[in-house]
Amino acid sequence: MENPKKRSQLSLHLTNANGIINQKGLINLIMRFIYGLIHLDKSIIFKKELDNILIYPLKIQKTELKIVSSKNDFSNLLLKGYKISPFFNEYELSENIKKNQILFLLFTKKQLIHKTWVLTNQSDTMDMPLKVDWDTQAYIQLVETHPDYRNLGAYTYVSSMVFEYLKKQGKKSCLCIASKNNLASIKSDLNAGYKKYGEGSYIRIFYFLEYWKTTLKN
């Protein structure tokens, strides 16, 4: 019997592939395909308690934070003149928006410079099968900052806004994951207020997660 979870993952990656071809070209797609054939990695699981939230300063002038939870919201932003550079893949953003996903977008002069995906309920589009208590927790994934605006506080600022939003929704904490090899992401997560919560290791074959093991703190 076909696994519906794997079917959902394949559909997501086919959608992404179409967007990559449209916006970044065939070579980029081929490189991602090769990377996805077989991939082993170890990750750090981070947790942020929402009882104490600091609002971090932003070193970028004239910014706007937009919260998007539907394709209509996203389409309306584009109609109002907000621009998505090829770095973020407009097609992928539009197609991957689900009911239980919330997209935090940071713009400057109507140009997108940062995105953060927030999951508040069980979703087939989680990048890792991490166990989440959805009654009290949320999951953060697919965080990206445009290269021209890195190290200017975009991630820490947006994270503090995400934390405030989640606290108002009744959440007590949120989780995220960073590869052990991605030192920049680890540093950013720590700067945003996350604490190490555990570790995970996995093997991914042709984009399907075949093995996942976690060790969490008590």
| Second CATH tier, the architecture | 3-Layer(aba) Sandwich
Helix amount: 25-40%
Q: How many domains make up the coordinates?
A: 1
- Give the strand tally: 8
Output the CATH class name. Alpha Beta
Largest sheet: 8 strands, mixed
Which residue ranges are poorly predicted, with pLDDT under 50 across at least 5 consecutive positions?
1-15, 17-24
H/E element string? HHEEHHEEEHEHEE
Question: Would you tell me the overall average pLDDT?
Answer: 82
Strands of the widest sheet, in order across it, are: 2-3-4-5-6-1-7-8
How would you describe this structure to a colleague?
With 218 residues, the protein is an alpha+beta fold. It has a single domain, classed as Aminopeptidase, CATH 3.40.630.30. The chain contains 6 helices and 8 strands, in the order H-H-E-E-H-H-E-E-E-H-E-H-E-E. It has helices at residues 4-24, 26-37, 71-79, 90-96, 154-168, 183-191, and strands at 38-49, 63-68, 101-108, 111-119, 137-145, 173-179, 195-205, 208-216. Strands 2-3-4-5-6-1-7-8 form an 8-stranded mixed sheet, with helices on both faces. Strand 7 and strand 8 (208-216) form a beta hairpin. Helix 1 packs antiparallel against helix 4. The longest helix is centred in the N-terminal third of the chain and has 21 residues, at 4-24. It is globular. The model is unreliable at 1-15 and 17-24 (pLDDT under 50).
Which helices and strands, and how do they pair?
Blueprint: H1 4-24, H2 26-37, E1 38-49, E2 63-68, H3 71-79, H4 90-96, E3 101-108, E4 111-119, E5 137-145, H5 154-168, E6 173-179, H6 183-191, E7 195-205, E8 208-216
